[in-house]
Write a structure and sequence with these properties.
UspA; Nucleotide-binding universal stress protein, UspA family; 155 residues; 5 helices; Rossmann-like_a/b/a_fold; alpha/beta; Universal_stress_UspA; 41% helix; Rossmann fold
Length: 155
Amino acid sequence: MFDTVVVATDGSDSVKRAVDVALDLADRFDAEVHALSVIDASEVDASPQQLRSELRTALETTADAALATVEERADRAVQTATREGRPAAEICEYAREVDADVVATGTRGRHGENRLLLGSVAERIVRTSPVPVLTVRQLDPAGDGDDGDELAVSG
C-alpha cells in the first residue's frame, strides 16, 4: 500500500510527531523513506540584501539538522534532500519526482474557531499534493486534556 513515504521537515516542534508517525508508517509497510527540507526562498528574498547570505547559511544549517534528526530516528536508510523555493510547491514536486505514496507533514494544533486551520504550508500541501497527505498535529503542551492526538489524511 505504501512503498514510498516523504517526510517534509523543517525541524520545528510541530513536525517532530509527524516524523515519528511517518517512520512508524514506513516500518509497518517496509516503505522507503525520503526526508525533505525546503528553504523558503521568499524568506531569504524578503531580508535585507546584506543579511541574505547569512540567513541562507542559517536556514541551510537548520535544514541539515532537521534531516539529520530524521535519519537518527529512523531504523532504516533515509534519502534526504534540501530544496529552495516555495515550501508547498517544492514538497509536492518532490513527491511527484520520487513517486511517493504519501507525504507526511506536521501542523500546529489549533483550538476553538481555528481548530480546522492547518497552517499555511500544510494547507497548501493538502490542497495541491498529487498524493495523499498525512498531517500530524503536535501534542498540546498546555496539558488541558486535549492531547492533540489526531491524524488527518487527505487524498
